[in-house]
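Good morning C.,

I know you're traveling, so I'll keep this short. The sequence:
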Amino acid sequence: MQKTKYSLEHCNSMIKRLLPSSDLFKNISTLVIGTFAAQLIAVLLQGVLRRMYPVEDFGVFDVFISITGIFMVVASFRYEMAVVLPEKREDAVNLVFTGVFSSFGFNLLLLLLIYFFEGSILSFLNLEPHHGFMLYYLPAAIFLFSTYQVFNYYLVRRKAYKDISVN
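The tokens, ready to paste straight into the viewer:
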């Protein structure tokens, strides 16, 4: 048998033939790499955070994140889902503003409800009274996350996948 040596150019061309070269593959790989990097940072910081905070604080934070996730779904009345649909750019921009303003209004109402029913909400969530301050951060967190979603869908519309990945 005769041994053949492959040149570096030959190996590169074989790899390029194996990998899809479509824009879809490039966009997906950009998003996958960005998501992987973000998750890796979170995993690496777990050890540091576990040493800094007691387990009870993680429980309260979990309640906070769960409530934020539930209300984030309805805060912008799902206008972010419609941002990618219009043919005209100005219609999409109007949907972005509508989503942001509806989220703002929703969270203003939520802040008022928290102000008037703080004790009832704390007892419903089975939280100690000294965790009441956490409730006042909820509207801000929900507003920021829902606004992030609206702008993320706008970036999808613009096909700005590198910006989404960095974001």
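Safe travels,
E.
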